[in-house]
Amino acid sequence: MAELSVPPELEREIFETTAAKFPKSIPALLRVARRVHIWIEPLLYRVIQLDDDSDLENAVFRAMKRNDAPEFFHRAVHHLVLQSDGRGPNVLQLLSLCTGLREFGCMNSLANHTMLPILAEMRDLRRMCCSLASLFGSVESIDIKHPVLQSITHLDVFDDNCWNLLGPVLQLPTLTHLCFNKNHWETLARDGLPVAAADCPALQILLFQWPAGSESHKHYDSIKEPRLYDLPVVVGLYDEYWAEMEAEARGCLKFWAEADDFISRRRKGDIEATRFWIH
User: Fold this and answer.
1) Per-residue DSSP letter, 174
2) What SUPFAM superfamilies has UniProt attached to this entry (predicted)?
């Protein structure tokens, strides 16, 4: 009986699709054949959330010692989140290798100004999640015109001074999606959100969210503020922020996809104009 022959292009697509949909299967797939190892290995590092997972940390730091590490990391890593500085090489060494990043996130305690020149060289970086004050060194040092921010389309901000940052951040030239991960909704909605958001016609989503478990959201189900009805504003909660961000990076519908869908349905009239609460 003749063996079934599969064209290499189709075979590669099958393995890559399987790896993308089932990331936990990648270690097993790497052992199938050398050609499969070459195809699939970059997908193992496509999404890196460096936390307290020692297995992941060890794998990443072993890969950093490869002879082709700069080329490999540039090609492989699209999403990097630093939740821990780990026990291996300095996170700046890892960051400097990931020159092809599209998404970058960082805990406030790890973000600092030494990352700025590295991030500024990343031409494909579109999403950033961090405290701008931590990244720039202080609130006063935040430079909206810095090269690191000029290509950002999706910005998740973890700063306490949301009120002072809203106006400057909305001046970013490519920004379409802005998220404040603090409960400053009431102050902004009452005092300055309509004017600030109206001055940024490119803005598609302005998301306010904070950790689940808060009782303060109950009166947000219907907001009687006509000035806000035409603005792309969404309010919601998150359970595990970094876990949900990772899921989104792997193709699940999370923060931005849900917010985009919510705004689209509200504009069509499927959702009341007075409703801003997404959940």
Assistant:
1) T
2) L domain-like
